[in-house]
Amino acid sequence: MSDKTVNVALPKGRLGDKVYEMFKAAGYPCEALENPGRKLTFENPDVGIKYFWVKPSDVAIYVEKGAADIGVAGKDILKEYSPDVYELLDVGLGKCRMCVAAPSDFRDDYRKTLRVATKFPHVAKEHYSRIGRDIEIIKLNGSIELAPILGLSDVIVDIVETGATLRQNGLIVFDALFDISARLIANKSGYRFKSRRIDMIKENLQKVKENCDD
Q: What pTM, to 2 d.p., does this model score?
């Protein structure tokens, strides 16, 4: 990994597109990324930056293991996997909430184990452990909203953006656990060697964010 280049893991998808636009506005454009073809990595040596797209849930792994110096990952991912990274900046994108939701007629029966369907088992366990509730985790990867509708679970723990999908399926939010947005994270070892450059990127992204908020 070049000492002159900052390697950036971007999350694939709409969020990643918005993140790249922030980096571009901050002074770190990359023409190759805008015309990717089949390439997997994209470099602009003039500004000392190298990008690569990865699955959103993998960004933190690439950063933690040092394959990337920095990356942008959702707070949901950071809460679920607790990677050993520095969290440098809330970039203000991808805003939503982690919530407990269930059918509108749900009433919790504390005499029974609560069945919780989720993509975020650690988050769910931590929440219910805090309130002393006995639960059974049902780990799913697809449409979580289907679980209580078909009687697979009592409640779900999932990301809620507008709540439209919940409403269309007869579910409501019973509890909001924490707010989610995209965060700039850094590899701890890489940060020691490239702190000046990484701090400059963070400051420039902060300026872009502030301009967008105005």
A: 0.91
- The closest alpha carbon to 8, from 60, 64, 49, 61, belongs to 49
| Tens digit of each residue's pLDDT (9 = 90 or more) over 54-95 | 999 999 999 999 999 999 999 999 999 999 999 999 999 999
3-class secondary-structure state, position 198: helix
Measured from the Cβ of residue 195, the count of other Cβ atoms closer than 10 Å reads: 12
Bridge-based pairing state of the strands 171-180 and 182-186: unpaired
Of 29, 123, 40, which is closest to residue 81 (Cα–Cα)? 123
Q: Are 174 and 100 in contact (CB under 8 A)?
A: yes
Q: 22: part of which helix (H) or strand (E)?
A: helix 14-25
The conformation of residue 160, written as its DSSP 8-state character, comes to E
State the DSSP H helix or E strand holding residue 13, giving kind and residue range, or none if neither: none
| Run of H or E residues at 127 | helix 121-130
The CA angle 108-145-105, to the nearest 5 degrees, is 35
Nearest-Å Rg of the Cα atoms of the chain is 20
